[in-house]
Amino acid sequence: MSTVMTMSAMTIMISTIVMMVATLISKKTHEEREKSSPFECGFDPKNSARLPFSSRFFLIAVIFMIFDVEIALLLPMPITMATSNMKSWMLISSMFLLILILGLYHEWNQGSLEWSN
């Protein structure tokens, strides 16, 4: 039992020493303004936050996120085909794809997919 406790104490001591040495080595000697400021998608965070923002860019980003999540839901469909009832799988997959196609058609019809007019 004493060897287990000795080994545990040695492990804790060695890991503590390694963490302290890594902390001392990794400290930077000087701070730079650009490197210490957060990166905000190319915008300068030191300026006013009340600048106009392109709502077109925001709309395209939201549409991308919606269709990205839907692609993540489409990927497991072929895998679940082997373990599901074929009729219910075809019905669910067809309905899901129909909803996707209708949403894409609606976005296209509204002109949301065009970056510039």
UniProtKB/TrEMBL annotation:
GO CC annotations, alphabetized: mitochondrial membrane; NADH dehydrogenase complex
Gene (UniProt): ND3
Family stated for the protein in its record: Belongs to the complex I subunit 3 family.
Task performed by this protein: Core subunit of the mitochondrial membrane respiratory chain NADH dehydrogenase (Complex I) which catalyzes electron transfer from NADH through the respiratory chain, using ubiquinone as an electron acceptor. Essential for the catalytic activity of complex I.
GO molecular function ontology, one term from the record: NADH dehydrogenase (ubiquinone) activity
InterPro entries: NADH_UbQ/plastoQ_OxRdtase_su3 (IPR000440), NDAH_ubi_oxred_su3_sf (IPR038430)
Taxonomic placement: Eukaryota, Metazoa, Ecdysozoa, Arthropoda, Hexapoda
Species annotation: Reticulitermes hageni
Membrane-spanning residues: 6-25, 57-77, 89-108
Keyword Cytoplasm listed: no
PANTHER family: NADH-UBIQUINONE OXIDOREDUCTASE CHAIN 3
Any one Pfam family match given in the protein's UniProt record, by short name: Oxidored_q4
Record localization: Membrane; Mitochondrion membrane
Identification of the protein by name: NADH-ubiquinone oxidoreductase chain 3
Entry keyword annotation includes Transferase: no
Catalytic activity: a ubiquinone + NADH + 5 H(+)(in) = a ubiquinol + NAD(+) + 4 H(+)(out)
Record key words, sorted: Electron transport, Membrane, Mitochondrion, NAD, Respiratory chain, Translocase, Transmembrane, Transmembrane helix, Transport, Ubiquinone
Enzyme Commission number(s) from the entry: 7.1.1.2
Topology class, membrane: Multi-pass membrane protein
First-level EC class: translocase
